[in-house]
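Customer escalation, tier 2.

The customer says the design service returned an amino acid string that "doesn't look like it belongs to this structure." They asked us to rerun it and document both sides in this ticket. The original structure tokens are below, unchanged.
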């Protein structure tokens, strides 16, 4: 086993690893977003993969999601911690807050989103795509660290790279979705197909355009978004370092059984 925990996120998380080694991994679905860094973090061996490539050159719709999940799975990873910046669709989900996703709503199109499109028919259950055990641990840790957060939230995933129109954004708000982003799908669904635990941490950078004009909601500049995000990367790093020691060495959650009953037999 090369690694037990996978981290997918921005390149800022690289510095979490002690004495990292960078390796090239190939998969039958092509190459992942970048070389994978493997190092220690506490008692775990951790593999880090920058989702958008080391120089941030891959837009959300061109991230090789299948190769990324397959590469981490090949390395022996059983649990993935992922971070993503998100826009808020609800006033009480404020810029700077963290969200632990418990549901996604897919609005992307044309993405390679299953490992079962060849010779095997499988219908993998997706009722609860995120690992409830890891979400529970992350929630306790966020509380201890005094970070403002939301324990649950549905994130709608749009194709990008463009942002939403006001009409689209208002539509998503009206559905009751809390946040919007461009990368959670198919990443979490593919992890589920590999029976991996997946923790999705959203960092709210701004209010989405549909909320513009509401009382107390001011337009933000790109500079402000970058500064909010930068401050939160260090919070996310503390969060991840504090979560790891709380994980059991053996998984007790149901994620590892995600393929039970998925295959059609005659
Ligand atoms: Zn799990």
């Amino acid at each position: 086993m090369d690694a037990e925990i996978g981290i997918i996120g921005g390149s800022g998380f690289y510095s979490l690893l002690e004495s990292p080694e960078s390796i090239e991994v190939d998969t039958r679905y092509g190459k992942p977003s970048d070389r994978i860094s493997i190092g220690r973090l506490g008692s775990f061996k951790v593999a880090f993969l920058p989702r958008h490539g080391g120089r941030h050159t891959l837009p959300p719709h061109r991230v090789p999601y299948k190769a990324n999940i397959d590469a981490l799975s090949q390395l022996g990873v059983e649990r993935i911690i992922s971070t993503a910046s998100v826009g808020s669709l609800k006033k009480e989900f404020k810029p700077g807050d963290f969200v632990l996703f418990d549901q996604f709503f897919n609005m992307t199109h044309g993405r390679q989103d299953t490992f079962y499109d060849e010779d095997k028919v499988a219908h993998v259950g997706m009722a609860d795509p995120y690992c409830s055990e890891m979400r529970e641990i992350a929630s306790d840790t966020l509380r201890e660290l005094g970070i403002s957060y939301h324990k649950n939230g549905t994130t709608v995933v749009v194709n990008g790279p463009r942002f939403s129109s006001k009409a689209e954004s208002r539509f998503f708000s009206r559905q009751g979705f809390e946040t919007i982003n461009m990368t959670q799908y198919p990443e979490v669904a593919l992890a589920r197909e590999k029976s991996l635990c997946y923790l999705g941490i959203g960092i709210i950078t701004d209010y989405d355009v549909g909320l513009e004009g509401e009382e107390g909601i001011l337009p933000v500049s790109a500079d402000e978004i970058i500064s909010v995000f930068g401050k939160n990367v260090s919070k996310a790093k503390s969060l991840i370092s504090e979560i790891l020691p709380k994980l059991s060495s053996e998984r007790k959650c149901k994620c590892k059984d995600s393929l039970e009953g998925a295959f059609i037999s005659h």
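Tier 2 assessment: The sequence is consistent with the input. The chain is about 25% helix and 25% strand. The longest strand covers residues 197-207. Sent an explanation to the customer and offered a walkthrough call.
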